[in-house]
Amino acid sequence: MLDVLDLSMDAGALTAALVDVESVSGAETRLADLVEAALRRLPRLWVERNGNAVLARTDLGHPQRVILASHLDTVPVAGNLPSRVVGDDLYGCGSADMKSGLAIALRAAQLVGAGAFEPGVDLTWICYDCEEVEAARNGLGRLARERPAALDADLAILLEPSDGVVEGGCQGTLRFIVRTTGRRAHSARAWLGQNAIHALTEPLATLAAYRPRVPEVDGLRYHEGLNAVFVAGGIAGNVIPDAASLTVNFRFAPDRSLAQAEAYARELFAGHDIEIVDAAPGARPGLDAPLARAFLAAVGGEPVPALGWTDVARFSELGVPALNFGPGDPNLAHAADEHVSLTKVAAAEAALLRFLSS
Predict the structure, then answer these.
(1) Tens digits of per-residue pLDDT, 223-266?
(2) What is the distance between the alpha carbons of residues 7 and 17, in angstroms, rounded to a whole number?
(3) 8 Å CB contact between 139 and 51
(4) What is the spatial distance between Cα 278 and Cα 66, in angstroms, rounded to a whole number?
(5) Among positive and negative, which fits the CA dihedral 306, 259, 274, 200?
(6) Other CB atoms closer than 10 Å to residue 119's CB: what's the count?
(7) Among 34, 101, 180, 199, whose CB has the most other CB atoms within 10 angstroms?
(8) Are 316 and 322 spatial neighbours (Cβ–Cβ below 8 Å)?
């Protein structure tokens, strides 16, 4: 078991060490303890703890501040711990999403905090809990409510997996339950009842007929999605059910507000009882901010849209320009064979340091 987190090791080795500390959402305490202790050993950093979120900052007198934000948690382990290296790839739960991003943020903290690297901006590091679960538990959201001044900056970089390219903005997410009702009866006399599961036919047909909108927002093309993710109903093998439900996830482009997304969902399923159970707004790209342009110049390449939801939306709500950038491949996030290229981890670290030195 890891007792001390050594931030002086290379970013690939540090990623492996972080992966091997299991930190499923809600169980991040041990990893938060290790990160906090490692950051407190660095003389140029001010460090504080908020629950299982760890914050560190420099006060070097620069006129601009950049936030490096990375979440500590992962989805549940799928037989993919401990980590292992095959060729250039490091396998393990959270390797792509987002312990490789966390590693390069902590490497920058080590270099800056020990005085081995002089950044051109002041920096805040936020390593937080519960990103992979419902929005109400999100550690960055908790900080926005309790410590909003800690999130004040001229640019926030979310080290989310983006395969080494800059992702602008993010799509919003809405999860809601469509409920149907019927009348219970013995299945041998089904005509005396009304089957609530059969009543789901209409909302399921609505989903099957849905065609996604693909709008362009500030030069980036997003892709909406509307999908059933859970179905529930049934009482016993010989009973006509009197209640059923269909849980739907709507991923919407950032040109829609949360209110507009909810209105669209209610219109689409008009006549049905709908309960909103989770919601988070999207964020427009915001890549025209001066520091965002500087980051794009340092990284190179063309930006792409973030199709998943990320915490750039929280910074956008606070008026802080934000973008996604990390070495992991988002298509491998949450997969049983999740892995990250060690070459891309090193390249992402170099790009981040290039920006910070400019």
Answers:
(1) 999 999 999 999 999 999 999 999 999 999 999 999 999 999 99
(2) 10
(3) yes
(4) 29
(5) negative
(6) 18
(7) 101
(8) yes
268: number of Cβ within 10 Å: 17
Q: State the amino acid at position 353 in one-letter form.
A: L
Could you tell me how many residues make up the chain?
Answer: 358
| Residues annotated as part of the active site | 73, 131
**What b/e sequence results for 283-322 when a residue is b if at least 16 CB atoms lie within 10 Å of its CB, and e otherwise?**
bbbbbebebbebbbebbeeebbbbbbbbbbbbbbeeebbb
**Can you read off the two tokens belonging to residue 103?**
């590693």
Q: pLDDT per residue over 39-60, tens digit each?
A: 999 999 999 999 999 999 999 9
Contacts of 49 (CB under 8 A, 6+ apart): 32, 36, 55
Cβ atoms of 281 and 313 closer than 8 Å: yes
Q: Assign residue 170 a region: left if phi > 0, alpha if psi is -120 to 50, beta otherwise?
A: beta
Cβ-contact 193, 242 below 8 angstroms: yes
| Cα–Cα distance for residue pair 223/226, rounded to 1 Å | 10
C-alpha 297: how far from its chain's center? Answer: 24
